Amino acid sequence: MIADGAGEDEEKWLAAGAAAFKQNAFYMQRAIDSNNLKDALKYSAQMLSELRTSKLSPHKYYDLYMRAFDELRKLEIFFMEETRRGCSVIELYELVQHAGNILPRLYLLCTAGSVYIKTKEAPAKEILKDLVEMCRGIQHPLRGLFLRSYLAQISRDKLPDIGSEYEGDADTVTDAVEFVLLNFTEMNKLWVRMQHQGPARDKEKREKERSELRDLRAFLTYQVGKNLHVLSQLEGVDLDMYRDTVLPRVLEQIVNCRDEIAQYYLMDCIIQVFPDEYHLQTLDVLLGACPQLQPSVDIMTVLSRLMERLSSYAALNTEVLPYFLQVEAFSKLNNAIGKVIEAQEDMPILSAVTLYSSLLKFTLHVHPDRLDYADQVLGSCIKQLSGKGKIHDTRATKELVTLLSAPLEKYNDVVIALKLTNYPLVLDYLDSENKRVMATVIIRSIMKNKTIIATAEKVEALLELIKGLINDLDEPQGLEVDEDDFEEEQNSVARLIHMLYSDDPEEMFKIISVLKNHFLTGGPKRLKFTIPPLVVSALKLIRRLPEEGDNPFGKEASVSATKIFQFLNQIIEALPSAPSPDLAFRLYLQCAEAANKCDEEPIAYEFFTQAYILYEEEISDSKAQVTALQLIIGTLQRMHVFGVENRDTLTHKATGYSAKLLKKPDQCRAVYACSHLFWLQDQETIQDGERVLRCLKRALKIANSAQQMTSAARGSTGSVTLFIEILNKYLYFYEKGIPQVTVESVESMIQLIKNEESLTSDPSAESFFASTLRFMEFQKQKGGVVGDKYEQIKV
Fold first, then answer.
1. What is the dihedral of CA 141, 146, 147, 151, to 10 degrees?
2. 3-class DSSP state for residue 224?
3. In 3D, which of 150, 140, 71, 137 has the Cα closest to residue 99?
4. What pLDDT is recorded for position 218?
5. Average pLDDT, the chain
6. CA dihedral in degrees (474, 478, 482, 483; nearest 10)?
7. Which of the 8 DSSP states describes residue 545?
8. Cα dist. 282→241, 253, 526, 691 in Å?
9. Mean pLDDT across 20-25
């Protein structure tokens, strides 16, 4: 026996016990080898006496118990061999009861009882009943728990089950069930008493020990819950017996023990070990016990696992789905969750939300066609959250996001989620940050599944769901959002706009009108992301409209190009205040080009006017001015809708802007680019060779001036690159047949470049000029009209 010493630690006690155990096990084995029953019983009893210690924690005691278990298996084999050699099993059963101490005596009695049952010299039920009653002699929780665990282990294959060799007229499966339930009841009592034995000051220590037991899966498997596993393996335990006998008695014991750890673990055991079919048919009984459990029991996990198992059962066996409706599984689960939350007044929000999240997943898997069930779950969740305001618990909000994401993941169609009337009401309980997270989830679902939202009503509902991304009016003061995250969020909104589409022009116009109303109230910093795709959608709509001649209502139609252009003007006007004047400038030019294709001269002129105003008032950076002027010239060149007066006004402005650029090279390039505004090959009304030549000469003058300024400032002749660029323009217009651009003017430009001293000192300019000359030679060799033209030029 391990000596009780207050100053010795647990490791020393275990080491001492293990040493004594090993020594007696050695002598026991030697006696077995010598077929000496008397000595085998003597040394086995001394060996088992080491289990009488009270100084070891459950963890360490389990180590010692497993050593004993292994040795007892050897002893059981020896007992069986003794009976074959003529030893009476009845005498053996009585002989082991002569052991001096009760704990070794009962271990030996269980071992001998196992052999007794195998010999079939007495009904199994009588022996099992005797053993389970005799084990009451050990009331110490830890020692008794392991003793009954040993009893459960050695008897599991000797129960009188249907089809078992131990089944007979006197032995039925009812006897087996009675034995297991009795052993289970006694083990559960011992398990609970582990918390209450000893002085109150040791209660915390005992709780810790019991938690260790719960964490030792091997131990628990062979302890209390093992009895339930044995019951689940009995062939004779059919649905009727489970419903009428097993489940009521197990639940009665669980509820009456009033211990949170035992209740949680045993409820989980029931769910895990018995068939799903049994759970489905006894839902009302199983769920009825849940509100009676201790308030501190983690009922959230228990119910969640039950619903997960039932969901998996339905997924693997689709033929059982009608039974779920027949037994009203959804209603029972929903009511049970409500009663549990009501019974546990202090239940955390996290637990309540998790329960409804599990119920929603169950509903979506088992009843995917019953949207009313899903909406009912959301409504029940709202009922529990009402009066609590925004949820700020991180884990609870994460679980709420999971709940809201479930319909999207199941249906892969946000349109179905829009049909759930309680969906946006649940969303309102999220704080601003998590609303953005949920909005991102919704948008990703739409983009991933390429879901088209085709009505203004649905778009309105969708925008309410993602208002966390499109509206910052209710942002908390001082809340800082990472710029990269913000840009990514707004880019996702921009991509979403292209999924809001209807083939009906009138409905499409309603959609973009709804978008406008939301975006313009969403704060200026979002406009540069949301307005451009909205403009693109509106321009696409214009291209789909019938020609006015084909439309009997013309401009008075409910949706016309004129109305859409007015709409575009309204939304682009908001951008300069964003501030995004560069973006507004580009959009005005795009709209002007669209108006050009619709032959809407006044509208196109107005868009150009707005672009010019922005250029003059908002674009001050020299590089930005160069880029903007290139866009003006390029767009204006493609316009055919303007009359002479309007076109002259716009081209005059463009050439005026060109001459006012800060840098001379930029002026030169802008001016020669303006030459294209006066000669369009396919439009005879825009073919003014004089003004083309005037632009080229003015560009040449500016290039000369730029070279002189470089020479004066740096003491060296500037690059001739500008001259070569102008030469290329001369060649372009000469090839187009403009009378004012003559052979002499081209030859004069070539000679001017050749006379420049800096040509040879600038490799890039020299290469550019050589390339231009090769082009001219190539054109000569082509022959025909173009070849004849270039043949006239003498290089």
1. 130
2. helix
3. 137
4. 37
5. 88
6. 80
7. S
8. 12, 17, 55, 95
9. 94
Q: Retrieve residue 155's tokens.
A: 């008897």
For 59-113, what is each residue's pLDDT tens digit?
888 889 999 999 999 999 999 999 999 899 999 999 999 988 999 999 999 999 9
Q: What is the pLDDT of residues 689-744, one digit of tens each?
A: 999 999 999 999 999 998 888 877 765 556 689 999 999 999 999 999 999 999 99
Predicted confidence (pLDDT) at residue 389 exceeds the cutoff of 80: no
Where helices occur in 386-522 by DSSP H, the ranges are: 394-411, 414-418, 423-427, 432-449, 456-465, 467-470, 483-497, 505-519
Quick: pLDDT tens for 785-794. 888 899 998 8
Angle at 112 between CA 106 and CA 116, to 5 degrees: 135
Contacts of 558 (CB under 8 A, 6+ apart): 506, 509
DSSP SS3 for 14: helix
What Cα–Cα distance (Å) separates residue 287 from each residue in 330, 332, 340, 380? 12, 8, 9, 18
Cβ neighbour number for residue 752 with a 10 Å cutoff: 16
Tokens of 253: 């014991």
pTM of the complete model = 0.76
DSSP state of 242: I
CA distance 337 to 341: 6
Q: Letter for the amino acid at 548?
A: E
134/442 Cα distance (integer angstroms): 64
The amino acid that residue 398 corresponds to is K
Alpha carbon distance 41, 78 (integer Å): 11
Tokens encoding 528: 């540069």
pLDDT of residue 420: 94
Amino acid sitting at position 151: L
Dist. CA 666–CA 307, nearest whole Å: 72
Distance set, CA 232 to CA 214, 241, 537 (Å): 21, 11, 63
Tokens of 194: 């582990």
Q: For residue 550, what pLDDT is reported? A: 45
Output the six-digit token pair for 790: 């270039």
